[in-house]
Design a protein that fits this description.
The structure is a single chain. The chain is mainly α. The chain has one domain: Ammonium transporter AmtB like domains (Ammonium transporter fold, Orthogonal Bundle), CATH 1.10.3430.10. The chain is built from 15 helices and 4 strands. Helix 2 packs parallel to helix 4, helix 5 runs antiparallel to helix 13 and helix 8 runs parallel beside helix 10. The N and C termini lie far apart (about 115 Å).
């Protein structure tokens, strides 16, 4: 027994003494695997650095996607605003058009529009074209195969390629916004099938081409035209298309009397419209700050200028309509909020808070006079004031960059910050170019639709309502919502 104890003790001592030798030998055995792992990680790092030209982080991806989701939610806001400002018998039609603006637009923008907008320049920057594929216009390799330490083949995707999916969804919701602006101006008398054609064309061609001029590396961008989040790229383009559509379509039945005077056709649900404006206000915090495309400190500044301009627009529109008609009209004040938001969209990253206040305040006054001028003087029926809010105030906001751009914020200099008239003239050229493009193309499009499949519903369909005639259902089943209107 004593001998067995000696043997066990000796074995333990020998094991302890031999441990350093055994442990020291272990790295030598695993060195090849460690070297293989190190080589794999280095090759992976080299590939990522080589193919990531945008320099985007995961935080940038998350922020841009959140902003895109906020902009998408604006479709709900537009649907509620338009529904509330029009009659109950057309509510389903309004909702369907806003739904299909995104659904049709996303597919059209994916297949055609994105390439036209962000592909390499064609014909001196008139439009883009991505011959290498919808999500690889920069012609970078999409993937690379590496062998890891265990001998397994690993496929690495190009990070720049992956970023473009985030970039696409952010741009797609902007394209849908441009398309949906027209819905309100042409509400209550447009054939649904005809509207689908328009929605697809603006998302596939009209919006992307002029968008390329400014955001895609085209000729206006080269001139120094500044439109940070789309007062002209998105809003004015949609507003001018709405102007052409409403003009060609003609007014609603009963809008203008035998004497030519405008008659009010009140919306059926102002609280619904107000909720829509609140949603749009909320969504604009994705629209403007999200256009940084990165989680940067400038997001806070852009959010502040956005809020200030919208608030100033609400105040000045309320005061203006109050002075003109002795009442603080709610519908015009709601449009004043949107006017301020549209106005600041171009310069939200380039003007000071004071510049934002002035931009929004002017937009709030401008929208009131514009709505009355278009309705009473031009006699163009725009049920929700889309042309004034988006077209006119979008143009004003873009020009305001040339006046108030502050180098302390975005680097550019406007007239009142020591930059002279140079930027203002560039802004004016851009506003005019997009006006001509959007108006001309929309005119051709709507005239083409009018003389082929038809643009306007019959008088009988207008009286009964588009919900029943176009969609075979009612938004408020069981309620008497019309007689002979």
């Amino acid at each position: 027994m004593k001998r067995l104890s000696i043997i066990i003790t000796a074995s333990i001592l020998l094991t302890i003494l031999a441990a350093p030798v055994i442990l020291s030998a272990e790295p030598a055995k695993t060195a090849p695997a460690a070297d293989a792992k190190a080589k794999f990680e280095q090759a992976k790092k080299d590939w990522i650095e080589k193919t990531t030209r945008e320099g985007k982080t995961s935080g940038d991806i998350v922020w841009t996607l959140v902003a895109a989701f906020l902009v998408f939610f604006m479709q709900a806001g537009f649907a509620l605003v338009e529904t509330g400002f029009t009659r109950a018998k057309n509510s389903v039609n309004i909702i369907m058009k806003n739904l299909m603006d995104f659904s049709m637009g996303a597919v059209a923008y994916f297949l055609i529009g994105f390439s036209l907008m962000f592909g390499p320049d064609v014909l001196g920057g008139l439009f883009g074209f991505a011959s290498t594929g919808i999500f690889s216009p920069n012609a970078l390799p999409v993937s690379k195969e590496l062998v890891d330490a265990a001998g397994k083949t690993v496929t690495l995707l190009n990070n720049d390629y992956l970023w473009q999916f985030t970039f696409w969804i952010f741009q797609a919701v902007f394209a849908a916004t441009a398309a949906t602006i027209v819905s309100g101006a042409m509400a209550e008398r447009t054939r649904f099938s005809s509207y689908l054609v328009y929605s697809a064309v603006i998302s596939a061609i009209i919006y992307p081409v002029s968008g390329h001029w400014i955001w895609g590396g085209g000729w206006l961008g080269d001139l120094g035209f500044t439109d940070f989040a789309g007062s002209t790229v998105v809003h004015s383009l949609g507003g001018w298309a709405a102007l052409m559509g409403a003009m060609i379509l003609g007014p609603r039945l009963g809008k203008y009397g035998p004497d030519g005077k405008s008659r009010a056709i009140p919306g059926h649900n102002i609280p619904l419209a107000a909720l829509g404006v609140f949603i749009l206000f909320f969504g604009w915090f994705g629209f403007n700050p999200g256009s940084t495309l990165e989680a940067s400190f400038s997001i806070g500044v852009i959010a502040a200028t956005t809020a200030l301009a919208a608030s100033a627009g609400a105040l000045t529109s309320m005061i203006t309509i109050w002075v003109m008609h002795s009442k603080p009209d709610a519908s015009m004040t709601l449009n004043g909020v949107l006017a301020g938001l549209v106005g600041i969209t171009a310069g939200c990253a380039n003007v000071s808070p004071l510049g934002a206040l002035i931009t929004g305040a002017v937009a709030g006054v401008l929208v009131v006079f514009s709505v009355e001028f278009i309705d009473k003087k031009l006699k163009i029926d725009d049920p929700v004031g889309a042309v004034s809010v988006h077209g006119v105030c979008g143009a004003w906001g873009t020009l305001a960059v040339g006046l108030f751009a502050d180098p302390a914020f975005g680097g550019a200099k406007g007239l009142f910050t020591g930059g002279g008239l140079g930027l203002f003239w560039t802004q004016l050229i851009g506003v005019a170019a997009v006006f001509v493009w959007a108006s001309f193309m929309s005119l051709i499009l709507f005239l083409g639709i009018k003389h082929t499949i038809g643009l306007r519903v019959s008088d009988e369909e207008q009286i009964k309502g588009l919900d029943v005639e176009e969609h075979g259902m009612e938004a408020y089943s069981g309620f008497q919502i019309y007689t002979t209107e």
